[in-house]
User: Which sequence fits this backbone?
C-alpha cells in the first residue's frame, strides 16, 4: 500500500470509529471554527448546549416525539419499479419529500428549534436558499413558540416565491438580502451579521452541514435519521444493503444524513451529486467538490469555489438549494479519502430526471433532488442490475415557476 | 524593529503627545485603484498606524459601508497581490506602520509563507483577521511571527473575562477592542458608559496598548473614548468621506490626527 | 321513545351493523344509482370489480404496500399543544396533509388506479375542484402506468393554479371546463359526458364520496384508512377515544373516511363542517347538509342545494374543494339520524383558523381543512376540556394565491 | 286513450304512410319563452310525436348545443311549472302527443303525484328521463302509469342483450335507441353499418316501436336509419336551426315530416 492510500485508509477507519469531528471540530484536515470574536461565546454556548442536550434522554424523547408525530417520521422507502425497469436497476426512494413542509430540512430545523428553546434564547434567525430551510425554520419556531427571522437572497426570493409566502404565513419575518450574490451565500453572510449584532439572545438556526463547529456535527446528527431509517428499511424491504446510495449535495445536509449511517458499510458506494449548472467554467456551476479547492468560508475549512486571490466565486445552479460555493467539511473528508464519490450533473440533466420521475413514479421531486436522480440514472446505465438507494430530499412544488420557465 | 514593536511604539508615541493614537482604515483601491498609493500616504501622515482593508467577497463582520467599498474594489480588480505590490513600492518612504485587515481566505489562498515574505517586503507590520479566532490562528502565527509580523487579537464586549486575558496576552502590536456587538460602521446606539467601563476592563488585563474600533465617526467620540483607550480605529466614517470625494486629510485632522512638529 | 326517534335509532343500528350500502346502493333512503343507460354497463362492471377485488388478498396487499411505501401511511397523529392551550382543549391532528401529493385524496386515487389497472381499461378520466384530486389522480396513474385526463372548471384552474401545473408535470392532460358553473360541479358533468362517450375503455376516477353506487361505497372504503389509523393512534397516544371528531365536508370523502370507523363508538361526537361562504342566502355558501333538501345529482339521491324547480344552485366557498352543491349519501343518512352533526363556518372564520394553525402549530393547512379547525375551535369554546380529533385533510400550499388576495 | 297508446299509435300511423315517425325535440322556452307555444304547434304539425326538453342546470347526457339552449332557457326563467302551464293552454288543439324529456331532479322536486296530475292536464303523454335507469324508476312509474303516462326507456349500443330485452319490455310508447355512445348532438363518426345492425337487434326484442336518436341531423341519415327504425328523434340539429332563427317547419319537412293529406 502506498503511503497515500494508507493515510486515506486511516482516515476512513477514524471516520468509521466516530472520531470526527475531533475536539477542534475537525474532520481530518477539514472543519474547525473560523468566526468573529463576538461570536466565540455564542459558539461555545452552542457547543456546550449540544453536548448537554443532544444525548439527553428527555431531549431525545421530546425530539423523537416531534419527529414521529409532527414531522411524520419514519418517512417511507418507496420501491420505484417503473423507473427501475427503465434503468435496468432496482431503485428505492427514501422519501424526505413526505416530511412536514416537504423536505429533509425539517429534521434539522425542529431539532435546533427545540435546542434553542432549551438554551433560553429570545429569537431565532435563519438563512435560506431554496426556501425549504426557511419554511422548515418558520414552522419549527411556530411549533416551539419562538419568533423567527429568515434571511433570503433577492434572487432566491424570486425563483422560490411560493416558499416566501409560506414562511410569512407561518409567522416568520422574511428579510430580503440585497448584498453580495443575492443568493444563499449572501443570506448566510447577512444572518451571521445579524447574529454578530445579537450574539447572546439570538439563536442562529443554520440550515446545512456547513458553518463553524459544532454546526456540521449538529446538522449531521439531526439529519442522520434519514440514513438510519433507510438502512433498516432497505434491509427489511429489499433484503439487503444497496449497492449505492445517491444524494444531491448543496451544503450537504441531506447527503450526510443519508450517507453517515452507511459509512461503515464499505460495500455501499456513496455518490454525491453536485450542481453542474450549465458548464464547468467559473461561475457556471456550483459543483464544489468536483471543481473546488480548500478554503475558509462561513466558519469552516472545506472545499470551496474561489479564485486565485481567495475570492469566493459566483455560482450557478437551476436549483436555489444547491447554488452555494461551499460544502460541509465531512463531505470534503469523504471526498479526500475516496469513501464517497462526487460528480456533477448539469441543469438539463436534472430537468430531464425530474420529468422522468414525474412521469414514471408520479412523484414531483425538488430540482435539487432531481440532481440525485440524474446521477442515479447515469450510474445505473453504467452498472446494470444494481440496487440503488436515492435520497429524495424534497418535493418540487416550490419549483413550478422555474420549471415553467424551462419547459418551452 | 519587528512589525509588532513598530506598531506598539507608534501608539506609545501618540500617547506621549497626550492623545490617543489614530488608526485610520481604508479599503484598498477604493474608491479607485489609482488613488490607493496616495491615500496610504495621506493616512500614514495623519494617522499613527494605518489599517488597509483587503476586500473580500463575503465580509461578514462588516456593515454596509465596508461591504460596498469591498464590492467596488473587487470589481475594479483589487487583489491581495496587487495591494502588496503597491505597498512595496512606497514602503521606504512610509513612516507609519501598516496593518492588513483581511478575512482569512485571501491570506490562506496566497499561502502563509509567501504572504509573510511579501508582507515584510511591503513594509506591512501585521494583520487583523476578523474571522480568525485565536484557537485557529496557530498556522498563521507560525508563519508570520518568526518574521516579526503582528497578529492583532480582537476582543468584544461579550468576550468573557478569562478569555479576554488570554487574548490580550496572545496579541501583538495592540489589542483591538471592538466597542459594539455588531458589524463595522456602528449604527446601534451603544451605552457610552458601558463602553468606557468595558475599555477599562480590557486595559486592566492587557499588557499591550488597547485600541477601540467599530462605529467611531466623530471627534466627540474620539475624545470620550480616548481617555479610556490608547488608540482609536476609524473605518467606515473615513471610507464614506473617500466615497463622497471628501478631504481625508482634513477629516482625520478633525478627529485629532498626529501632530507634526 | 317516539316513533321518529325509534326509526333513527334503527338506522343507526343498521349503520353500525354495516348494512349500508344495501344491494341497491342505498344508505337508508339515500344513495342509489341514477345514471344514463349508456353508463349502466360501466357501473355494473365497476360494481363487480369492486366486489371482486376490494377484499381480494392480493389486491389488498398491493394497495397496502402502495399506501405504506408510496403514499406514506400511516400518517401521524400530531398533538397540538399550543392550539390546545389557546382553546382549553386537548387537540389531536390526523395528518393527511403529509400523505403523498398533500391531501387525503391520494388514498382514494391510488386505490381506484390500481382497480382500474385490474379492470384492464385504456385510460382514466377524473374531475377535480381544488386540484388535489386531480394531482392525486395524475400521480396515481403515473405510478400504475395509465394515461390520465383531468377535467377542471375554469374558475378553479385560476384559483388553484399551482395544482394545474403539478397535474401537467405528472403527465396528465388537464381539460378546462367552460360550461355550467365552471367549478367542481361542471367538472363532474363534463367527466360524466366524457365517460358516456367512452364507457367501455375508460375508467372514471371519481374524487369524493358522491356519485352513483358503488362510488360512495368505494371511496368510503378507500378513505376509511384515515379513521382506522386515527382510532388506533388516539387510543395509543391519548389513552382513549376523542370526545369529538371533526372534519370538513365537501363531497364528504375525508369526513366519511375519518367518521366511519368511529360510528360504532357512540360516545364520539361526529362533527362535519361545511362551507358557510359569505352568507346563508342562495348562492352564498355550499353548506349542503345545513341548508339543502334531498334531490338527485351526479347519480345519487342525497342532500342537495337546489331551488323549488329542482335546478341546482350556484354555490360559493373560498375553498374550491368545498364548493359543491351535493354531498355523499352516507352523510345525508348520518345527518338524518343525528349520528353526526353538520354545521357551517364562513370564509372569514376559515381564514382565521388557517392563520391560527400556522402561527401556533407551524402547519399551513388547506382552506378546506381550515373549516374543520374553525368548527373545532367553536366546539372547544362551548365545551371546555374536551379531547378533539381534527381531520387535517390537506396542506395549504395550493391556496397561497387565494390567501394573498384575502390578506389585505 | 292513454298517453302511451297515443304515442305508439302516432308512430304506427307514420309507418303506415311508409316513413319513419319524426320526433322533433326542442328545449322549452328556447331561444325565447314567447315563441314556445308557437314552436310546439309547428312541431306538432310537422312531427308525429313532440319531445319537449325541460332545461336542467346539469345536463350531463347532453352535448354543447342542448347545454347551451338549457342554460339560456333557465336564464330566461323557464321552469317545469311554466312549461306545463303553457302546454296546458294549447292542449286541446294539439293532435301530436307530447313527451317531456327531463333529468330526474326537476320531476322529483315537483313531487311525482303533482307532476303526474299536471301532465295529464297539459296533454303530456309521457317522459324520457336520461338519468333514470330502469332500476331506479319504480317510484316514478308508480305515480305516472296509473294515469296512462309513458316512461320511455332508453337503450344504447353498449346495453347488453339480456338487459335490452328487459328494457324493451319495460318501456312504454316506444323504445328510445340511442345510436351513439356519447352525448346528444353526436359529432363522433359512427359506423353506419354497426348502427343499423344495432337497431335491428333492438327491434328484434322490442314489442314496441323503436325510435333512434342522438346525432341525427339530415335527410340522408333519416332515410338510412328509417328502414331499420320506426322513428327518428331530431334534437340538437333542430335546436341549432331555432338558435339561428331558421325556419323550423321547412327544416323538419326537409327531413320528411308528417304528410298532411
Ligand atoms: C429539497 C432540497 N434538497 C437539497 C437541498 C440542498 O441542501 P443540502 O445539501 O444541505 O441537503 C435543499 C436546500 O435548500 C433542498 O431544499
Ligand atoms: C384538502 C381538501 N380537503 C377537503 C376536500 C373536500 O373534499 P371531501 O369532502 O371529499 O373530503 C378537498 C377537495 O378537494 C381537499 O382538497
Assistant:
Amino acid at each position: 500500500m502506498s503511503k497515500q492510500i494508507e493515510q486515506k485508509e486511516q482516515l476512513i477507519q477514524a471516520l468509521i470509529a466516530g472520531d470526527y469531528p475531533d475536539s477542534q471540530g475537525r474532520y481530518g484536515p477539514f472543519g474547525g471554527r473560523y468566526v468573529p470574536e463576538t461570536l466565540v461565546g455564542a459558539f461555545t454556548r452552542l457547543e456546550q448546549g449540544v453536548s448537554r442536550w443532544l444525548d439527553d434522554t428527555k431531549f431525545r424523547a421530546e425530539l423523537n416525539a416531534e419527529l414521529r408525530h409532527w414531522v411524520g417520521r419514519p418517512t417511507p422507502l418507496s420501491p420505484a419499479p417503473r423507473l427501475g425497469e427503465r434503468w435496468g436497476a432496482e431503485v428505492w426512494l427514501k422519501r424526505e419529500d413526505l416530511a412536514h413542509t416537504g423536505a429533509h430540512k425539517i429534521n434539522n430545523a425542529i431539532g435546533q428549534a427545540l435546542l434553542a428553546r432549551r438554551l433560553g434564547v429570545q429569537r431565532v434567525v435563519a438563512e435560506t436558499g431554496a426556501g425549504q430551510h426557511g419554511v422548515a425554520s418558520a414552522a419549527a419556531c411556530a411549533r416551539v413558540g419562538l419568533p423567527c427571522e429568515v434571511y433570503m437572497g433577492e434572487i432566491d426570493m424570486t425563483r422560490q416565491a411560493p416558499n416566501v409566502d409560506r414562511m410569512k404565513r407561518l409567522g416568520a419575518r422574511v428579510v430580503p438580502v440585497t448584498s453580495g450574490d443575492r443568493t444563499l451565500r449572501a443570506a448566510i453572510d447577512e444572518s451571521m451579521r445579524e447574529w454578530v449584532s445579537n450574539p447572546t439572545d439570538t439563536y442562529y438556526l443554520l440550515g446545512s452541514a456547513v458553518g463553524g463547529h459544532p454546526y456540521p456535527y449538529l446538522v449531521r446528527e439531526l439529519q442522520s435519521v434519514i440514513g438510519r431509517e433507510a438502512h433498516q428499511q432497505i434491509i427489511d424491504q429489499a433484503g439487503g444493503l444497496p449497492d449505492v446510495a445517491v444524494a444531491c449535495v448543496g451544503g450537504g445536509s441531506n447527503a450526510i444524513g443519508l450517507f453517515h449511517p452507511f459509512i461503515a458499510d464499505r460495500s455501499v458506494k456513496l455518490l454525491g451529486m453536485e450542481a453542474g449548472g450549465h458548464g464547468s467554467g467559473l461561475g457556471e456551476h456550483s459543483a464544489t467538490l468536483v471543481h473546488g479547492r480548500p478554503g475558509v468560508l462561513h466558519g469552516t475549512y472545506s472545499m470551496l469555489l474561489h479564485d486565485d486571490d481567495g475570492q469566493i466565486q459566483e455560482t450557478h445552479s437551476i436549483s436555489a438549494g444547491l447554488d452555494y460555493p461551499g460544502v460541509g467539511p465531512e463531505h470534503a473528508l469523504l471526498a479526500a479519502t475516496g469513501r464517497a464519490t462526487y460528480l456533477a450533473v448539469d441543469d438539463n440533466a436534472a430537468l430531464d430526471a425530474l420529468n422522468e420521475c414525474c412521469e414514471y413514479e408520479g412523484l414531483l421531486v425538488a430540482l435539487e433532488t432531481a440532481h440525485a436522480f440524474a446521477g442515479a440514472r447515469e450510474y445505473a446505465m453504467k452498472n446494470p442490475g444494481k440496487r440503488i438507494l436515492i435520497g429524495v430530499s424534497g418535493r418540487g412544488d416550490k419549483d413550478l415557476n422555474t420549471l415553467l420557465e424551462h419547459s418551452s | 524593529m519587528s512589525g509588532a514593536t513598530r506598531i506598539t511604539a507608534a501608539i506609545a508615541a501618540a500617547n506621549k503627545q497626550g492623545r490617543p493614537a489614530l488608526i485610520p482604515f481604508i479599503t484598498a483601491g477604493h474608491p479607485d485603484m489609482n488613488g490607493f498609493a496616495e491615500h496610504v500616504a495621506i493616512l500614514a501622515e495623519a494617522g499613527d498606524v494605518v489599517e488597509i482593508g483587503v476586500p473580500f467577497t463575503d465580509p461578514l463582520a462588516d456593515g454596509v459601508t465596508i461591504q460596498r467599498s469591498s464590492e467596488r474594489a473587487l470589481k475594479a480588480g483589487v487583489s491581495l497581490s496587487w495591494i502588496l505590490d503597491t505597498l512595496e513600492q512606497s514602503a521606504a518612504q512610509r513612516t507609519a506602520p501598516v496593518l492588513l485587515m483581511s478575512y482569512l481566505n485571501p491570506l490562506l489562498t496566497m499561502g502563509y509563507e509567501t504572504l509573510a515574505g511579501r508582507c515584510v517586503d511591503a513594509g506591512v507590520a501585521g494583520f487583523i483577521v476578523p474571522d480568525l479566532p485565536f484557537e485557529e490562528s496557530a498556522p498563521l502565527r507560525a508563519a508570520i511571527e518568526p518574521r516579526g509580523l503582528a497578529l492583532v487579537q480582537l476582543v468584544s464586549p461579550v468576550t468573557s473575562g478569562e478569555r479576554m486575558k488570554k487574548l490580550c496576552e496572545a496579541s501583538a502590536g495592540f489589542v483591538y477592542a471592538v466597542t459594539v456587538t455588531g458589524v463595522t460602521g456602528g449604527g446601534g446606539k451603544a451605552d457610552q458608559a458601558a463602553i468606557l467601563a468595558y475599555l477599562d476592563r480590557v486595559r486592566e488585563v492587557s499588557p499591550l496598548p488597547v485600541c477601540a474600533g467599530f462605529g467611531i465617526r466623530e471627534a466627540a467620540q474620539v475624545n470620550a473614548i480616548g481617555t479610556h483607550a490608547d488608540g482609536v480605529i476609524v473605518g467606515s466614517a473615513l471610507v464614506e468621506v473617500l466615497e463622497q470625494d471628501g478631504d481625508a486629510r482634513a477629516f482625520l485632522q478633525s478627529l485629532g490626527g498626529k501632530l507634526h512638529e
Q: What stands out?
A: Chain C touches chain A at residues 68-72, 75-79, 82, 95, 98-100, 102, 138-143, 145, 162, 165-166, 169-171, 237, 355, 358-364, 396-397, 400, 403-404 (CB under 8 Å).
